[in-house]
Design goal:
Layout (H helix, E strand, L loop, with lengths): L1 H11 L2 H24 L1 H4 L7 H11 L1 H34 L7 H30 L1 E8 L5 E2 L6 E11 L12 E11 L5 E7 L4 E3 L2 E9 L11 E8 L3 H21 L2 H8 L4
Antiparallel strand pairs: 1-8, 2-3, 3-4, 4-5, 6-7, 7-8
């Protein structure tokens, strides 16, 4: 049994496996590009559904179009496993020989590329967590001063104000008198009494207690004519993957700083143990 585990471990650490995975990923992604363009409606629900929900419905129902996507996920998982095993082997080797390094700084600098490899795995794990476990509520309509509860949560959101910026000019005639920018003032509150006041825009989401709130529509959009009541349409996403890939990004930046330092003359002297 131990021999089988060791053999499997060495197979997963193969550089040849890395090259095969990356080549297959490129081919698979290329095929997927053309299939997505030809069948956009099959993949568009991924914006609103979790990966599992989409796979059970659209994915399995259109397998002739989606097969490459499932293969892509498998190849990514295999590449992550390959990266983890290769990196762990190198880290173990460095750690076993740590007494040969002139100091802790030299040891950390030697580990810097491997820190970035672990960080990339964390980032991919964060994105996978988002696709699998994220809960998305689309078309949450808020009217002024009416608290609205977010589905499957104890959080309420209230639209306290909606400010719009209207375009006036002849350069873009069709947009004259129309709102080109909007900011919704939102008040958040959960069951424990925690609150937050923030402004959400079309390209400026707001975060509260694990929720990511995006404004997708609003009214009124133009001056004059029929007076429409103010409202803001939101897409609310509860995404447990965000902390994971933020942590991965922070770890990657840390590893990158160490790596850049290691290739400077000062860093090279630290690596050799010469500080003169």
């Amino acid at each position: 049994m131990d021999a089988l585990i060791k053999k499997s471990w060495h197979a997963l650490a193969s550089v040849r496996l890395t090259l095969v995975c990356m080549t297959c990923l490129c081919v698979c992604a290329g095929i997927g590009y053309f299939l997505i363009r030809s069948q956009v409606h099959v993949f568009k629900p991924l914006q609103d559904l979790s990966l599992i929900s989409w796979a059970k419905t659209w994915g399995l129902a259109h397998l002739s179009v989606t097969w490459w996507f499932f293969l892509l996920l498998g190849l990514l998982a295999l590449l992550c496993l390959n990266t983890f095993v290769c990196t762990t082997d190198r880290v173990n080797a460095i750690w076993r020989n740590r007494k040969r390094f002139p100091g802790r700084t030299s040891l950390v600098l030697r580990l810097s590329p491997h820190i970035m490899h672990y960080a990339l795995i964390m980032i991919l794990a964060g994105y996978l967590t988002s696709y699998v476990f994220a809960n998305t509520v689309t078309s949450l309509i808020l009217l002024p001063d009416r608290p609205t509860r977010v589905e499957n949560t104890s959080i309420t959101i209230t639209l306290t104000d909606l400010q719009t910026q209207t375009y006036h000019g002849k350069r873009m005639g069709p947009f004259d008198g129309r709102a080109i920018k909007a900011a919704a003032s939102l008040f958040f509150e959960d069951s424990k009494g925690r609150t937050k006041t923030a402004q959400a825009g079309v390209n400026r989401p707001v975060r509260f207690q694990g929720l990511s709130v995006h404004m997708t529509e609003f009214a009124p959009r133009s001056e004059g004519g029929m007076v429409r009541r103010k409202y803001a349409g939101l897409t609310v996403r509860q995404d447990p993957g965000i902390p994971i890939y933020y942590a991965g990004m922070a770890l990657f930046v840390l590893g990158l700083i160490f790596y850049v330092f290691s290739i400077t003359p000062w860093g090279e002297r630290h690596m050799r143990g010469s500080y003169a």
